[in-house]
From TrEMBL:
This is Arf-GAP domain-containing protein. SMART domains: ANK, ArfGap. Keywords: ANK repeat, Coiled coil, GTPase activation, Metal-binding, Repeat, Zinc, Zinc-finger. The keyword Zinc applies.
Length: 443
């Protein structure tokens, strides 16, 4: 998550500074005591993921979406408080004296900052984060114009399609449903624009995405069949009416009317084999292309790719369909001959999904793309291991936390009867506090 406070947090901080009575600090002991008081106030409240923030006049009880977000809010509020209390002789005045100097503020440039400067700096940092995302996204090829109608300076986006849109076309995309297009604002939905999502957009962009979704339309001048209905369709313009935009966008993404669909050819590798190789080679554009133009299944498993390399006769589906606990013991990864011989838990690929493979590659951008297109985040391999199991078993805590934030279930047990938490504990004490909290959260 970005270092600067979210807009909601910034508003709370500003309101707190505006309303509170003065805090006078005349010694190191006073400073430490006040800091402890604030720390005590920033504790868990009664509801899940809620925390109390006690001001002089009243209590504020925000509720975060989950435990990880709650910790992030608390950490950032504590950070600002600690920064404001760096000076042993700091004196913060009432509203109307906002410009009293604050020495040693951690975010400053060495000069004295007023309390008002501090909060203006927080606001500026948040706006800067929004501007940075907008600048990065618009610098990508074709992203200076709306992907649909060519309107300048688009400030909306479709996350899974990887394109930027004007506000008019974003409405038409919303009407398609989230299973087709996940629409977000670049300037309002600031939490969405993590570095992984920005990297995904860098790998795609309006120009490339339209070369896939509008290939037939872009090459229609090469077609000679005058009866072809495509010859009657032209690219949208910024001033086209809403009804025309909706019809065009429906034809483009639901009917895939302008996509150059792949013909079935027995002499070329299957779509499952090709998308597996594309994920393996971290080719984000080829994976995107195959998802759009072929019948590739986003939950393709290794069994469909190379049925000759399977070392177990039992079906992966038997485990996934819920055998009795006693029957599941034969799926224990500790009993797998291939894993025992190689001493590598990743040596048995049977039942692996594309998401398992992307996690094994530590390819965050690929993981994001697969999830946006509907990959099953809790899909089990032959040994009952989810992508989360794989990440914690290999010590990839950062990606494990990412999966948990995206909805991975920590309570699922693998063929050995162990959850992801128990697999993580096999590696020793869990020193990552946030990972521990996410793994132990109730689903």
């Amino acid at each position: 998550m970005a270092a600067e406070p979210s807009p909601g947090l910034r508003i709370l901080l500003h309101q707190h500074q505006k309303d509170r009575a003065p805090v006078h600090i005349s010694s190191h002991a006073d400073r430490d005591r006040v800091l402890e008081i604030f720390k005590g106030a920033l504790s868990r409240s009664g509801l899940p993921s809620e925390f109390a923030w006690q001001t002089v006049q009243d209590a504020i009880k925000p509720q975060a979406e989950n435990e990880a977000d709650r910790m992030d809010w608390v950490d950032k509020i504590r950070g600002v408080i600690a920064s404001l209390l760096q000076s042993p002789f700091l004196e913060q005045h009432r509203t109307g004296h906002e410009d009293a100097p604050v020495r040693g503020y951690a975010y400053g440039s060495g000069r004295d900052l007023s309390v008002g400067d501090v909060y203006r700096r927080l606001e500026d940092d948040t706006i800067k984060g929004q501007d940075d995302a907008l600048r990065i996204l618009r610098e990508i090829s074709g992203n200076d114009l709306c992907a649909e109608c060519g309107a300048p300076d688009p400030d909306w986006a479709s996350l899974n399609l990887g394109i930027l849109l004007c506000i008019g076309c974003s409405g038409a995309h919303r009407n398609l449903g989230v299973h087709i297009s996940k629409v977000r604002s670049i300037t309002l939905d600031v939490k969405v624009w993590e570095s992984t999502v920005l990297d995904l957009f860098r790998g795609l962009g309006n120009a490339y995405c339209n070369s896939v979704w509008e290939e037939m339309l872009q090459h229609q001048h090469e077609r000679t069949n005058e009866s072809d209905s495509l010859l009657l369709i032209t690219k949208l313009g910024p001033t086209d009416p809403v009804a025309k935009k909706e019809k065009y966008i429906q034809a483009k993404y639901v009917e895939k009317l302008f996509v150059n669909r792949e013909a079935t050819d027995s002499e070329v590798p299957s779509s499952a084999a090709r998308i597996w190789e594309a994920v393996k080679s971290k080719d984000i554009r080829e994976v995107y292309h195959l998802i759009v133009v072929s019948d590739a299944n986003i939950n393709t498993s290794y069994d469909e790719v190379d049925g000759c390399d399977l070392c177990h006769l039992q079906s992966t589906a038997e485990f996934q369909n819920g055998l009795k606990t006693s029957d599941k013991s034969r799926y224990d990864p500790a009993l797998c001959q291939r894993i025992k011989e190689s001493n590598d838990s990743a040596s048995c690929l049977q039942g692996w999904s594309l998401l398992h493979l992307a996690c094994h590659n530590d390819d965050w951008v690929m993981v994001e793309l697969l999830l946006l297109f509907g990959a099953d985040i809790n899909k089990c391999d032959f040994h009952g291991r989810t992508p989360l199991h794989h990440c914690v078993s290999r010590g990839n805590n950062s990606l494990a936390k990412y999966l948990l934030r995206r909805g991975a279930r920590s309570s699922l047990k693998d063929g050995g009867g162990l959850t992801a938490l128990e697999r993580a504990m096999e590696r020793g004490a869990i020193t990552d506090e946030r990972l521990f909290i996410l793994l132990t959260e109730r689903e």
